Amino acid sequence: MTVPLPPPNRIYLLRHAQAAAAEPGQRDFDRPLSIKGYGDAEIIADKAADKGYRPDLLISSTALRCRDTADAVHRAVGVGLDVRYVDALYDATVSTYLEIVDAQEAAAVMLVGHNPTMEQVLETLIGHEAMVDALPRGFPTAGLAVVDFDASVIAWRLTDFVVV
Fold first, then answer.
1. Pick the CATH number of 10-162 from 3.20.20.70, 3.40.630.10, 3.40.50.2300, 3.40.50.1240
2. In this structure, are residues 15 and 118 in contact, taking their beta carbons and an 8 Å threshold?
3. Span 9-19, pLDDT tens digits
4. Are residues 14 and 111 in contact, defined by beta-carbon separation less than 8 angstroms?
5. Could you read off the pLDDT of 28-84 as tens digits, one per residue?
């Protein structure tokens, strides 16, 4: 597995907000956000916008809970945001997430996806110790990692972690 080099220079990793429990017969893929999840998605999107975190490209899993979370970001940062939905992000490996990021020419890319992959991608980018120091209890729902490429040491660094 290869860690991507710029571009992009900034990667936003947004774990979808809290999903509702599956209804009888409902596929996991089709679970929407819970009432709390809808609120948290709006809050995290607004916090990101208030901090000036605006991706050039948002790539989201096609799972309903991710699309709902991506919609909140789209509303918060503006209609000019390029949003793409990618089936491969659902139930994907770390390699798949990193390959998707690495294939982008945009300066700042946001992925909206699932755990445990989000946590594993962050760990791959910044290293195990930095991951444990920053998130000792793991990657929460509606958590947003802001990861920047530090050219002086040719490594990715966690710049911020935004939570509800």
1. 3.40.50.1240
2. yes
3. 999 999 999 99
4. yes
5. 899 999 999 999 999 999 999 999 999 999 999 999 999 999 999 999 998 789 999
